[in-house]
Amino acid sequence: MRTNPVSLPFTPQPWLTNPHIQTLVSRFRRRPHLLADVPGEERLFRVDPQSQIKGVCSWQPDRQAPGLVLVHGLEGCHDSPYMQGIAHKAWHAGLNVIRLNQRNCAGTEHLTPTLYNAGLSRDVRAVIDELAAKDGIRALWAAGYSMGGNLVLKMAGEAGDACSILRGIAAVCPNVHPAACVAALEQRRNWIYHQYFLRKLKARVERKAGFFPGKWDLSLLKNIRTVSQFDDAYTAPDGGYRNAGDYYERSGARHVLESIRVPTLLITAQDDPFIPFASFDIPRIRANPRIQLVTTVKGGHCGFVQHAPESEDAHWAENRIIEFIQRDVDDKERPSLPLTPALSRQGRGG
């Protein structure tokens, strides 16, 4: 594990030291300028014979420029605020940016007969392979938030040395230990998050049933009171797992972290309400010199709204990801990636 610190430690806004406020403010803070001048092209990626996922691609004039693949978290989509924020900065930094929707997200329930789950890392790999084969991109980074962070880490660990186009991974508050995360989510103190996710998951399976009649028994929904019950009834059997416990055990990236062979930035907060900090105190992380684990005392879940210096905006984790990619760009690519201006307060950074 790499322990060299990031260039700028996280210092929360004085009024944002509570983890729940950090978590919620980062999702509702207005940033109306994001992507206003950034092109966006919808594209469907074939990830298995029956399934497609939607990406929104922001291309540079040079379609073969280095790229960043972004993956959202549970019940997010390409338009989630954190996806817009990092995409805005990455595009202005000279990267092609592909904001992926996981299966069924952003109104794509009709594009696959399956639900999505935390183990579908092969979908991310399929997109990366297509970008290399069809678009000629030679260097790609992948970044994910929460469940998306688990997916990109799992994909990289499974790939090992076999994905030459992959240059690096960034994961913010990833749920590398799903069982522990769901147990934390279902605690009373996290009622607001738990009810939000549960309501969204139930609504999604109801929409899916409209496209694939008879595939799911909707009568089970009325007795489901927790996310783990939902996963036991729907997510696990749909994904080929025996039950929720088997699903949580097999889908966590923690099992393959030692096999990651590219530079990896893993950012997490010790006060994350439902990603237990103990999930990252494991030998597979400590033993891998390619993983830089950056932990902050405050920050909530994917929050990290900082008391910003003059040199950059308030969104600390976004800035560290851009900075991380800059460090790993080789000399021949560096002239096309003016990354530092993308962090600034002046217009482009947000």
Task: Describe the protein.
Mean pLDDT is 92; it is low at 345-350. The protein has helices at 19-28, 81-92, 121-135, 147-159, 178-185, 191-211, 227-239, 244-251, 283-286, 316-328; strands at residues 41-48, 51-58, 67-71, 96-100, 140-145, 166-172, 264-269, 291-296. By secondary structure, it is α/β, with parallel strands linked by helices. It has two domains: 19-177 and 252-343, Alpha/Beta hydrolase fold, catalytic domain (Rossmann fold, 3-Layer(aba) Sandwich); 178-250, no CATH class. An eight-stranded mixed β-sheet has the order 1-2-4-3-5-6-7-8, sandwiched between helices. The longest helix is centred in the middle third of the chain and has 21 residues, at 191-211. Helix 9 (283-286) links the parallel strand 7 (264-269) and strand 8.
The helix-and-strand class reads: alpha/beta
Supply the CATH architecture of the largest domain. 3-Layer(aba) Sandwich
**Poorly predicted ranges:** 345-350
The run of helices and strands is: HEEEHEHEHEHHHHEHEH
Q: In CATH's first tier, which class of the largest domain applies?
A: Alpha Beta
What is the helix content? 25-40%
Strand residue percentage = 5-15%
Q: Radius of gyration from the CA trace?
A: 19 Å
Q: Would you identify the CATH H-level superfamily of the largest domain?
A: Alpha/Beta hydrolase fold, catalytic domain
Distance from first to last alpha carbon: 32 Å
* Apparent shape: globular
Total domains: 2
Instruction: Please tally the β strands and state the result.
Output: 8
Strand order of the largest sheet: 1-2-4-3-5-6-7-8
